[in-house]
């Protein structure tokens, strides 16, 4: 197991070295733009908006936010988890663009810089990564106020080892998304959205999940607004 953890750390180091190591330190949202220059062209690339097949009900992520989201709208909630500020900045831009409310997923025990040190195999994240049973993180508050009143829910998270940072999974597993359109999106140093949205949809088991979008850690407000406008909410 120790060897596997070390191997995983090496693989992750490879992924992150393509992007920006700054993404792993606690960085205020206002500093996020400053790391853009240190990102490689590959990491800085923002994938084009997804195509537009039909959305699917009951926890299966469909591809394509654009066309389907046009039928969504209504009351919008932007839910986010952010360990070091990048994802929070994107969530704030989306809330402003949609007029939505914000809800921060807050672990009962928040992550310190040492907790987030993926280069240390004894750190909290490394231990949680190595042992899936540790990833069911207790949350300070599991359900946002007035949850039933929201029709469209954005779920915003950082990528950790290729999947959604696990406090996000704890949140989706704890809530009923029936009747809601859910749009996952993430920030990462270089990884794509991958299966992260699909896995969250499976963990939720309810709701109409769209494919969503990935942004680089230091995504500009223009990048984010362009995507939000394409949703036609
Ligand atoms: C424990 C950990 C694991 C990470 N794993 C990946 C990864 O697999 N791929 C990647 O591109 N970035 C990875 N990152 C970088 C973050 O996804 C990226 O910096 C993100 O924008 C951080 O968002 P935040 O500031 O809102 O926490 C990882 C960061 C941490 C702390």
Which helices and strands, and how do they pair?
Elements: H1 2-18, H2 41-44, H3 66-69, E1 76-80, H4 86-98, E2 101-104, H5 124-130, E3 152-160, E4 163-164, H6 166-173, E5 181-188, H7 196-204, E6 208-209, E7 213-216, H8 221-231
The structure holds flavin mononucleotide.
What does this protein look like?
The protein is of the alpha/beta class. It has a domain at 51-109 and 138-231: 3-Layer(aba) Sandwich (Rossmann fold). It is built from 8 helices and 7 strands, in the order αααβαβαββαβαββα. The protein has helices spanning 2-18, 41-44, 66-69, 86-98, 124-130, 166-173, 196-204, 221-231; strands at residues 76-80, 101-104, 152-160, 163-164, 181-188, 208-209, 213-216. Strands 1, 2, 3, 4, 5, 6 and 7 form a 7-stranded mixed sheet that branches. Strand 5 (181-188), helix 7 (196-204) and strand 6 (208-209) form a beta-alpha-beta unit. Helix 4 packs across helix 8 (221-231) and helix 6 packs parallel to helix 7. The chain is globular. It binds flavin mononucleotide.
Short description:
This protein has 233 residues and is α/β, with parallel strands linked by helices.
Which ions and ligands are bound to the chains?
flavin mononucleotide
Helical/strand content category: alpha/beta
Unreliable residue stretches: 17-72
Bin the strand percentage: 5-15%
Features:
233 residues, 7-stranded mixed β-sheet, 8 helices, 15% strand
